[in-house]
Amino acid sequence: MHTLLKRWLHKCHWLTSLDPRPRVCKEASRCTESTVIPTSYVCEELASEFAKYWSQIQEDHGEGLEEIQLNALSRWQAFHFKLGKSTEEHPLPLDFFVEIFDDHFFLGSLRPYIKAKMADETPANADWIGLTSHERLRLFGRAPALQIEIKKLPLQLWTRKLVQDFLAVLLHEMTHAFLMIYSIPTSCLGNWRYRTLVETEGLTGHGPCWVMVAAAVAAEADRSLGGLWGSWDLVIARARSLERDALRDGDDRKGLHMHDQESEWV
Fold it and tell me: Each residue of 107-154: pLDDT tens digit?
């Protein structure tokens, strides 16, 4: 995996054209292959180059895809969705789709750092259907570890729309994971931190950088995942609505007017 990841990072212009901020382990004896610390990039530049890469792939009708991406699409096309079956008796294989989406959209660069699991519905998660969080931050010379949780569906029968909605939530969360792993966390404090978050990651994680990455992934999903599905919007509109609400609340508390600038990048 790490050999493939290094080849991808070296080859793809949306990473090699950036100015990297490497994170290195000061105690080499403690560094192992399983804890390789990923290089970090400026969030705006990372998102922009990612979007440019996929825009070019789409203009070229898929020409230039790597073998790992083509293999992922072959596995996607070969999978038999059990439509009309119970969601409880026939759950979708989450890890299988994590691998496909990681290989195709992110060239296997997420799996060294993420785990995915289904979550039972509880009062604590009533407000979300998917969540990406840090199990371990990028601290003390250690690689980040992220967990993606997707809420279990209530008992019902699988339909094509239900399958797509479920998988769109997974893709949504994987775009969060991508930025959390490879972009530089803001080190600003106070109002500067607030402004930086608004202009990059977003107060809820759905700022302009995430929108750029998610829109690129959604457009490629529309192109490559087959004509039997509807539009893959990754719940972008709802996410932006949540971000706007958080922005207005934050502005009210801080006496700022960042929401007035939002129209410049929406």
Answer: 999 999 999 999 987 777 777 789 999 877 666 567 789 999 999 999
| Gap between the Cα atoms of 141 and 181, Å rounded | 14
Please tell me the distance from the alpha carbon of residue 193 to that of residue 159, in angstroms, as a whole number.
Answer: 43
Single pTM value for the model: 0.82
Q: Strands of 130-136's sheet, edge to edge?
A: 114-119, 145-151, 130-136
Structure tokens at 265: 């990048």
Q: Do the Cβ atoms of 180 and 149 come closer than 8 Å?
A: no
Local structure of 157: helix, strand or coil? strand
What the block records as the tokens of 168 is: 């769109």
Q: Are 207 and 258 in contact (CB under 8 A)?
A: no
At 136 the three-state DSSP class reads: strand
CB 108 within 8 A of CB 4: yes
Q: Answer for the pair 132, 143: CB distance below 8 angstroms, yes or no.
A: no
d(CA 8, CA 137): 24
